[in-house]
């Protein structure tokens, strides 16, 4: 029954109607025994002189005494006396519910007299989390006091609403339950991998993400689901040893779709792996200096850092820091190696500073004696992303991460510490304004020796406070946004054990692609190759493998889905350039500037979240943008940052683009404008439901007015922000294609002989272009370089 506080009081009496005093005591003790393990009442104790001043206490686990709960039908009340408060001399009154009245109340009164005078039966005062007396209870006694309690109280107690013995748990998402029951990310995946079915069940699908894999099926196939798996590697700062690259290349051919996919987080993805081949593929990656552990799932993902193999102190330090952070936050319970290499750990031991920081529990950050000292059984509420970089270098999209780490050096170039930024993230949900992309907020500065402890404190704050009931709001950006940076900072500092120093001032950021030939600083060169949408296949893949294998080159993957060949001797430059050109790789100076900064997620056919095309659609979109550029008179060297995703989750970071296209329906995009080339400004929604067939109707007026009304050297994104979306929409709505007359067409003969045409056509096919388009790009790029005095 539901119990509420009433007004009628029944007094304790020294005389009773139940026989001897010992009989009354016996009855009372029976009530107490029966009450143990039952739902219990909170007793409100009133000062006799002032009934509005009160103290309350309850037995067993703490709870809010203001909430109303249902009593057990068998025992409706606990007994109470001032002895519970260590005040045996107080007289008091207790209001009872309907289940205890008359003679029984009198019995309780007599029992109270005996209890208060017999020290053997008295329950002593509760001090903090320990009892000062020697009374042993079957459960721990917790007492909750009202802050308004009077110091002198003759005991008057009234019942208040109660909770059941086991308080209702906070709501948790289904994934949280799966993690809890998984035996540290093992079950039921370990069982599902042994079945003959081509797929795994829902719980195992969630668990395998922590191992670096997603279950997928080809959505182009109608009427049947042909299941396969994608695996993603984990490569801090995009570092890929020669041995691992060759292994990944071979695995793609033998077990995958024959292509390698470079991701926007400096990793590989292999698609199309059958369930029966998963263990072979995973173990091969591990045995060749690689890992997929934590590339997906609710934990720290791959740690970004500039991929360029410069040997300057700041770049080397940034990359070492990325490796150490990745090691710090790598799961420790062994589930990964148990699953794929029969428990054999085949990776190098962590640096001692990483082990020390991980094991440090001086500020209560760890789960003592747990196989996962930082993550526990539940890991994090959602994915967690970290990037490290040096001042000016925003090749990593630093402000889109949960944590951004920037190396701060002294005047001699010696690293001294780090600026920290928190709360960035891209994912959102269409038509749900409470979800949003967010740029990170400055947190503070830490000395270089403290970076691992500061990162751990941030992770623990998200672990303990991030939402676990609704995964749409589980990223740390929502915690930072709801708390505000001041409260967030204060809580992190409790786990860090120190105050953050003020953030250090930084120079302007710029996007760096690191394409082309550049000196490393140690006598060697590196060569940055542009890879459209990060997809390497066919002749390009074969040629790249031959070059990497022949010259024993290490590789770096960039956050812009490109690839860097490292440690190249000067004498190798010419033959490598020639071989790669023959394999279909254009020299970066010949790549369309639109393509250099463009990105797209895989989307169809394998991503289960895709709403429309992205990777397969962006080549045509870029061609159409270039055609509009030509139509409105923009130069070939001019560009805008264009990013396309098939859904609003934002894997290609479209909300940072000058022109972002986010799938919101079949062949339809939500258009975002206002990002900047250096990736420091968040774009905003400009239009919804823009059909892919009608993109030119939006592109033409936007680029036309940008060409004619921009300020000196003003980027397209900055122009849209300055002019304002209201005016831009007026221009789009009033656009008449007749304003622009088609420019004169020139029928130039580009090819003097058939052999040249066929060679150009072969290269063009690899780039998904016509021979004429490719030839025009090369000619224009060459003419532009001559005009700028950069011709060779």
TrEMBL record:
Q: Which cofactor does the UniProt annotation name?
A: [4Fe-4S] cluster; siroheme
Keywords recorded for this protein, A-Z = 4Fe-4S, Chloroplast, DNA-binding, Heme, Iron, Iron-sulfur, Membrane, Metal-binding, Oxidoreductase, Plastid, Thioether bond, Transit peptide, Transmembrane, Transmembrane helix
Record GO biological process: sulfate assimilation
Q: Give one GO term, molecular function aspect.
A: heme binding
What PROSITE patterns is this protein classified in? NIR_SIR
Stretches assigned to the Nitrite/Sulfite reductase ferredoxin-like domain: 228-284, 518-570
Q: Which family does it belong to?
A: Belongs to the nitrite and sulfite reductase 4Fe-4S domain family.
How is this protein named in the record? assimilatory sulfite reductase (ferredoxin)
Q: Which SUPFAM superfamilies match?
A: Nitrite and sulphite reductase 4Fe-4S domain-like, Nitrite/Sulfite reductase N-terminal domain-like
The record describes its quaternary structure and partners as:
Monomer. Interacts with ferredoxin.
Is-annotated flag, keyword Transmembrane? yes
Compartmental location: Plastid, Chloroplast stroma, Chloroplast nucleoid
| PANTHER family in the record | SULFITE REDUCTASE [NADPH] SUBUNIT BETA (PTHR11493:SF47), SULFITE REDUCTASE [NADPH] SUBUNIT BETA-RELATED (PTHR11493)
Any idea where the Nitrite/sulphite reductase 4Fe-4S domain is?
331-500, 596-733
Q: Say which species the protein is native to.
A: Trapa natans (Water chestnut)
Which residue windows are transmembrane per the record? 21-37
| Broad enzyme group | oxidoreductase
Query: What is the superkingdom listed in this entry's lineage?
Result: Eukaryota
Q: Which GO terms describe its cellular component?
A: chloroplast nucleoid; sulfite reductase complex (NADPH)
NCBIfam families for the chain:
PRK13504.1, sir
Question: Which Enzyme Commission number(s) are listed?
Answer: 1.8.7.1
Q: So what does this one do?
A: Essential protein with sulfite reductase activity required in assimilatory sulfate reduction pathway during both primary and secondary metabolism and thus involved in development and growth.
What InterPro entries is this protein classified in?
NiRdtase/SiRdtase_haem-b_fer, Nit/Sulf_reduc_fer-like_dom_sf, NO2/SO3_Rdtase_4Fe4S_dom, NO2/SO3_Rdtase_4Fe4S_prot, NO2/SO3_Rdtase_4Fe4S_sf, NO2/SO3_Rdtase_FeS/sirohaem_BS, SiR_ferredoxin-dep
